[in-house]
Amino acid sequence: MASGPFVGIRILEFTQIIAGPLGCMLLSDMGAEVIKVEPIDGEPWRLQAQFVPLESKQYQALNRGKQSLSMDLARPEMQAAIHRLVKDIDVVVINYRPDVAARLGIDYETLSAIRPDLIYVDSTAFGRKGPLAQRPGYDIVVQSFSGLTAAGGRFDENGNPTLPGGQPTADNQTGYAIAWAVSAALFHRERTGRGQLVETSLLANALMVQYGSFMSLPAADEMLRGALLNRLEAARESGQSYRDFVEERRALMRQRGFGSIYYRCFNTQDGAIAVGCLSVQLREKMRQAIDVTDIRDEPDYDPLAHESQAFAAELTARVEAMIAGDTTDHWVELLESAGVPVSAIEFVETLDRHAQVVENDYVISLEHDLTGPQTQVAPPLKMSDSPPQAQGAAPPLGRDNDATLASVGYSEAEIAEMRASGAIR
Q1: What is the pLDDT of residues 201-243, one digit of tens each?
Q2: Out of 4, 9, 16, 132, which could bridge 388 as a Cys pair, Cβ 3.0 to 4.6 Å?
Q3: On the CB side of 190, how many CA atoms lie within 13 Å of its CA?
Q4: This prediction's pTM
Q5: Pairing state of beta strands 33-38 and 66-70?
Q6: Exposure pattern of 289-327 as b/e (b: 16+ CB <10 Å)?
Q7: What is the pLDDT of residues 365-390, one digit of tens each?
Q8: Are the C-beta atoms of residues 114 and 89 closer than 8 Å to each other?
Q9: Would strands 119-124 and 196-201 be described as parallel, antiparallel, or unpaired?
């Protein structure tokens, strides 16, 4: 039986790939009943790297706890079925282009006329206005446009830019924004009785995770942001390569003190570690632990002074060599005992067995209808009075067609006719 603060809330999901499915899965974990509408042949993520027909690991990881409706929304009879269903739906989440939603009769104006207090969350790539509004956009496209790719400054073995961390940051951030938006809109409706249209985008959320770099503050920006913008303009005018400019940007950030021995990763003799010392006190603890001196926190320290940069370069090289000379365990134990924030760099594939993950119940076991046992990451929240929980594994394609259509008054004969005509799976 479902538990969580959204038990009794019904959500109709028209989304694909990552952001929308993640957002709706988080809402399912909070107890909502999520009905996912998919094309007859399944959404693209279901079809990506199938390990059995119509099942992929990535799809199952993003769609647990949902019901699956598989139908041809281009058919008027299936649009009519959705209109019947939406009468008892609290929230619609969609990531279709606006012209597609209107053509299929699932746009906000149409559905809110049927259910006046409907909450309708519209997720796009670039937002509904502006010159890019109609441009299709996946995470990699928006990461590139938003500056995330350039900020990461990563390149593959052939010198091509790659995503920082190799993760769909814009998609993931937008998934959380969708869940947050639905929570806020439900609270608003509880207080006022009114539904509403909610909009978010991959671009808005990609910019949000770069809050400080995106922010323009003339009183603080003169030395760094101004220099970056001037160098970018000059680089473009001179035909400088993207990679060359990324290296210039990285050098400028180091000059401003963003690169140091205190907040970075190091290679060790048998692996790698990360340290994070963002206060004077923590930096002093690290200096004492590894027995070095530094001028960084002296009152007259100027990161742009030539002597400061030379000192920092020498110190960085010395500490890198020192840490590379001993094991990960040695450095983690030494720095941790000194109160320095430190961790070995781990691989996520190993963490479902790590004591820290297991003892906090961050891993859960589920049983899929077709593919059997699996483990997944647990809902990311714990609540003492209305605990979230996964409501089951992801659904096989179209599993819930008959039960859902019957719930809004269709007879067995009508459902059989829909199936025979190819309107549903």
Answers
A1: 999 999 999 999 899 888 877 666 777 777 777 777 888 888 8
A2: 4
A3: 8
A4: 0.92
A5: parallel
A6: bbeeebebeeeeeebeeeebeebbeebeeebeeebeeee
A7: 999 999 999 999 999 999 999 999 99
A8: no
A9: parallel
Q: Give the separation between CA 5 and CA 180, rounded to whole angstroms.
A: 13
Q: Is 392 exposed, middle or buried (0-12, 13-18, 19+ CB in 10 A)?
A: middle
DSSP reduced 3-state for 363: strand
Give, in degrees to the nearest 5, the angle at Cα 269 between 290 and 253. 60
State the burial class of residue 193 (Cβ atoms within 10 Å of its Cβ: 0-12, 13-18, 19+).
exposed
Length of the chain: 425
Helix, strand or coil, per DSSP, at residue 117: coil
Residues 6+ apart with CB under 8 A from 355: none
Q: Crossing angle, helix 306-324 and helix 280-290, to 10 degrees?
A: 50
φ, ψ dihedrals at 125, nearest 5°: -80, -55
Q: What is the DSSP letter of 74?
A: T
Residues 6+ apart with CB under 8 A from 384: none
Q: Which residue has the tokens 């920082």?
A: 164
Tell me if 268 sits within 8 A of 331, measured CB to CB.
Answer: yes
